[in-house]
Amino acid sequence: MKLAETELPVSQQNKNIIRLATAQALAGANSVVFYATGAIVGNTIAPSSTLATLPVTVFVLGMAACILPFGALARRHGRRAAFMTGTALGVLTGLTAALAVVLGTFTLFCLAAFMGGAYAAVALSFRFAATDGVGKERRARALSLVMGGGVAAGVLGPMLVTATLDLWPAHTFAVTFLAQAAVAALSALVLMGVTSPPPSPEATSGGRPLSDIVRQPGFARTVFGGAISYMVMNFLMTAAPLSMHMHGISLQASNLGLQWHVIAMYGPGFFTGKLINRFGANQVGAAGLLITALSVAAGLSGTGVVHYWVSLILLGLGWNFGFTGASAKIIDFHRPEEKNRVQSLNDFIVFGVMIVGSFSSGALLNAFGWNAVLWGSLVPVGVAFLAIIHKGVRGVR
Questions:
Q1: pLDDT > 70: percent of the chain
Q2: Which residues contact 164 (CB under 8 A, 6 or more apart)?
């Protein structure tokens, strides 16, 4: 029997969306801080320069490793338990990283990176939490609005780094990580006001086996489309700054391009939901993959700063359409009592695939150059686009 989820009052739905969007901005700023500083700190305190980027890799591993446990926690004890645990780890991330910088301990810094990834993992569930207790007609809109909160992260994160990096000259970035801990604590306070329907007994023990859920027509193609949207975005974004450096583009110009990339990733969230309601999640996801292909074309057209900027902005837009479309479609495949298991499995696959992109992009760039990275991304984009089109013809349950 399919169970109906209790619908919250519209006023509470709106409060949840505002709080979750704010928490998305704060959590996103924490991630931006670590991505911006992790390799720099690693290069300073790592026993070998070849390990400089290991903290960023450990951060991504922390995300993938903690998605399923947080999903199980939310399933048994509710979203708030997962939120509070995740933000507590966010606070510990900042405190541990600051201590690692002061002591010059690389292992401790990698531990902080793993906890930071765990915090980022729970932040992934904010977009799905916005759909709890929301009528079907509002779900895509709620999900996309929460993702729109990431726009502030693209501004707040770099500002946090710039304002704090030199406050303790003897230990660069130590104060930055303390500020990161404070931001995570603020996020916890914001999330305490989020109200979700309580988990029912069926939510902890009911629902269909995962094997039955994943065999639904279109499920695998939906997950694949979202995973490829995220993997290719990360694949190109990871390689782009180094490629710009190799082509003599200044760090300031590179950072500006990345900042606009982040804004392009999250800015469309304020209207993507409306597009999904009007045209369908499949069509929006397919459009995202086409925009990603245009990003590749822009990158292949030259190596000037404008080429990189246009490519990065289109890459952000493509990610938003592709990933939001897939996320909205996943909701159609699960019942209320199955949501935490299915959503966690989806994100686990997405970030498992993303790890492959993180590991391979730098090696491919150094071995064969920027154009090889671009051409290499077109194959999975094309396959995912064809899968979504085929799915769109057949439909899902």
A1: 93
A2: 173, 175, 176, 178, 179
